[in-house]
Specification:
CATH class of the largest domain: Alpha Beta
Helix content: 25-40%
CATH topology of the largest domain: hypothetical protein PF0899 fold
Distance between the termini: 33 Å
Length: 213
């Protein structure tokens, strides 16, 4: 199943369009209260191939992206400049939470994307991107894959946690440690992944993930 972005984005170099799921009406403004704007599932860990494809998709009929901030983990190289349409600067920030990308447009708007690892199971990747693209989503980028996997287990094999483990989180209960050690105030701290997944759908959260772009 292809997303709307995949069906409509024309890629001039003959490569397939990026696997991208964006909010239906993505008119990003810095003050908008959504946590993420969508999800991206690159096909490889080569940024010189994957990032130009993403830029072309994000720039279609919108203000062009001029700066991108992302974490270095999981990529083969970390170039500061990549040939794309128009000048784009890529900033590789070590403190950026895993799986989170910021794209700054020339008009000052910012697009926040979940980045799904290329080797992720297709069903899990599609579900994670769809969740990230939901305007009512309250789950931070590093926790989305954990949430999708946990819910899949719950509805197929059954997942039972006592009340204390639900508060502490799945990773702490099962492995004795948190899956992510992020700076205070950047990605939900000790809040439970399952608690975030079951938050009221009308809740909105301002964009506070990761470093300031």
């Amino acid at each position: 199943m292809t997303t709307a972005a995949e069906r409509t984005t024309a890629i001039s170099n003959g490569r397939p369009p990026p696997r991208l799921d964006l909010q239906p009406n993505l008119q990003s403004t810095p003050s908008r209260g959504t946590l993420l704007d969508g999800g991206w599932w690159p096909r490889s860990t080569d940024p010189t191939i994957e990032l130009p494809q993403l830029m072309r998709a994000l720039n279609q009929d919108r203000s062009p992206v001029r700066r991108v901030l992302l974490g270095p983990a999981g990529w083969d190289s970390h170039p500061l400049r990549i040939p794309v349409a128009g000048p784009v600067r890529f900033v590789w920030y070590a403190a950026q939470p895993a799986g989170l990308l910021f794209a700054l447009r020339s008009n000052g708007d910012r697009v926040d994307l979940l980045v799904v690892p290329p080797d992720t199971d297709p069903a899990t990747a599609r579900a994670a991107m769809a969740l990230a693209a939901q305007p009512a989503n309250t789950i931070h980028a590093p926790d989305i894959l954990t949430t999708v996997i946990a819910l899949a287990i719950k509805y197929t094999m059954g997942l039972r946690l006592d009340e204390e483990d639900e508060v502490n989180g799945i990773d702490l209960a099962a492995h004795g440690e948190s899956a992510y050690d992020l700076h205070s105030g950047t990605s939900g701290g000790s809040s439970s992944v399952l608690a975030a997944a079951t938050a009221p759908t009308g809740t909105t959260t301002t964009k506070t993930e990761g470093a300031s772009a």
